[in-house]
Amino acid sequence: MPKLAQDLEGIVNHKLDALMPSDIRLFDRYVSQYEGVIKLTLGEPDLDTPEHVKQAAIKDIEANDTHYAPQSGMPRLRQAISKYVKKLDGVDYDPETEITVTVGATEALNVTLGALLNTGDKVIIPTPVWSMYMQEVCLTGATPVEVDTSDDGFVLTPEKLEEVIEREGKGVKAVMLNDPSNPTGVTYPKEVIEGLAEVIKKHHLYALSDEIYAELIYGDTKHYSVATYIPERTLYISGLSKSHAMTGWRLGFICGPAEIMKNVAKLNDFTITSVTNNVQAAGIEALENGLDDPKEFKEIYQRRVTFMEKGLKELGFDMALPRGAFYIFAKIPEKYNGDDVSFAKALAEKARVGVTPGFFFGQGGKGYVRMSYASSDEHLHEALKRITKFVKEN
């Protein structure tokens, strides 16, 4: 096996030196060592992609659709995305100039940040939040500015945003929002979104809005997108991974004003050339004929979150109100002294239940654990039994 030439050691992109592997993924591997463990660690639907969506991809393959697709995505898919976003959030994006199809929402985020940020720029990121946001900002040479939202119900208030902008001074270029939130499941009220939009506009900033969980809202709660209020300064990022249980298909998209989307599309072209044809065919089917698919998923998740929330509260866990996505972000009982990492390790070792320490999602998550209820009812019922026994005995 070849060993790197000694004179080449250290001659690499040093922006990567500060980046660490995902703590969430590493901890998932850690809990996986325990035989019989029930994992509530990863944010992936346990449900299957709808059959009609799978069949659309199969038919596309059988039709020998095997040549390069347009770099920004098939026109029919971009048209479907435009109609979908307009129906969901009331924003009218031009399929020709304002929408780019990507390999999942993660790649969408990467090319969006790459198109916007320069070394020295700052991006305000409310925490707790999916840790990849911070890593991807750092990869551009910009600096993530974490804002602890744990005292404000896990939402970034307009007042707190104003305070952080004033404190940071020059260099703040964008604000990152994820609603509903990973890991908290919290949704932003309309008045908060409107207030944030005003602050972002006042300070001439971009809004980077991750809408990947927008379809998974429960009860009477409604989703409000910042793009509805300031579309002229918002980059709207989403995909079908969560809404249609298509994580492995890797299909995402970016919407935004044509002027900035020129650079976003250019970087996307250089990064991937184009998204796989049969995946785009599946996306067309999902958005043209599968808009009701998420409703069935929502009913399942609603039942699960109600069950888990009730059981955990009876054990002394406090939590953010989980009204979206498929996570419960629970504050561990006081007797564990806020040590979420030790609690999660002990729970895996002694009870064979895997949860994710809240600290991995930023300073705002310390003392909490994230539990994904994107797991079978059977597993969730057994996991709660094991958690109950662990809390009573340890």
UniProtKB/TrEMBL annotation:
E.C. code: 2.6.1.-
SUPFAM superfamilies for the chain: PLP-dependent transferases (SSF53383)
Listed CDD domains: AAT_like
Gene3D superfamilies named among the record's database cross-references: Aspartate Aminotransferase, domain 1, Type I PLP-dependent aspartate aminotransferase-like (Major domain)
Domain Aminotransferase class I/classII large, residue spans: 36-387
Domain of life: Bacteria
Molecular function per GO: pyridoxal phosphate binding; transaminase activity
GO biological process, one term: amino acid metabolic process
Enzyme kind, highest EC tier: transferase
Cofactor(s) for this UniProt protein: pyridoxal 5'-phosphate
Record flagged with keyword Hydrolase: no
Key words of the record: Aminotransferase, Pyridoxal phosphate, Transferase
Family: Belongs to the class-I pyridoxal-phosphate-dependent aminotransferase family.
Name the UniProt record assigns to this protein: Aminotransferase
UniProt organism field: Lactobacillus equicursoris DSM 19284 = JCM 14600 = CIP 110162
Lineage of source species: Bacteria, Bacillati, Bacillota, Bacilli, Lactobacillales
